[in-house]
Amino acid sequence: MLRSRSLGVLIVAAAVTVAGVLISDVELSVPAGQQRSADSPELGADPAGTETGATPCPVSVSGAVAVPTLSGAMARCLGSAQPVDVGAAVSGAPTLLNLWASWCAPCRAEMSVLDAYKDTPGAVRVVGINVRDRPGSAAVLARDLRIGYPSFTEADEVAGALGAPQLLPLSYLVDTDGSVRRLPMVVFGDVARVSETVAAARRERQE
């Protein structure tokens, strides 16, 4: 009798574990308690040592007006220790902002597509916004995927300024006039879809 009850407990525990894996693979949001990754560096670690090889982020251009929606929203570039005003840094050029986290499976798939998109003719600048994550985990993922566009991290202020819902991935288009438009909440599966979505958003702004 005792052996049967023990076996039943083990079966239930295994079922819960499997269900948890399946849920994490399909949902676009993760509860706050799951936003920390186990492979992260210790808090207070030097970004220069734990985030080496990260692509430099854009910097503010002299005379450019900060994007109003993002003005004053602070974050730091992966690989840099100095927080910057993201609204000033991304001003002056059309930019696709992609909100992502290392624990987000759809984000990982989409990041490779965006990396390919950035090199296509007519592509706008791509900048990642790493949120609800550990910077060390973010840097490791970007290196593993060989992502060539930059990302700001510790960027929850940016997500707040955008009014972003608790879903990932999310993309926004910042245009040259400083306007910000949220793109459709889909996971980009190919480069053509990214190009079409960005072009449509820019046309809508001009109409």
From TrEMBL:
Protein's GO biological process: cytochrome complex assembly
Key words, A-Z: Cytochrome c-type biogenesis, Disulfide bond, Redox-active center, Signal-anchor, Transmembrane
The record's section on CDD domains has: TlpA_like_family (cd02966)
The GO molecular function terms of this record are: antioxidant activity; oxidoreductase activity
Recorded hits in InterPro entries, A to Z, give:
AhpC/TSA, Thioredoxin-like_sf, Thioredoxin_CS, Thioredoxin_domain, Thioredoxin_ResA/DsbE_sf
Q: Which domain of life is it from?
A: Bacteria
Tell me the ranges covered by the Thioredoxin domain, including all copies: 56-203
What Pfam families does the entry give? AhpC-TSA
User: According to the UniProt record, where is the region Disordered?
Assistant: 34-55
Q: Where in the cell is it found?
A: Cell envelope
Q: Name one GO cellular component term.
A: cell envelope
Supply the PANTHER family for this chain: THIOL:DISULFIDE INTERCHANGE PROTEIN DSBE
User: What is this protein's name?
Assistant: Alkyl hydroperoxide reductase
Q: Which organism is it from?
A: Mycolicibacterium tusciae
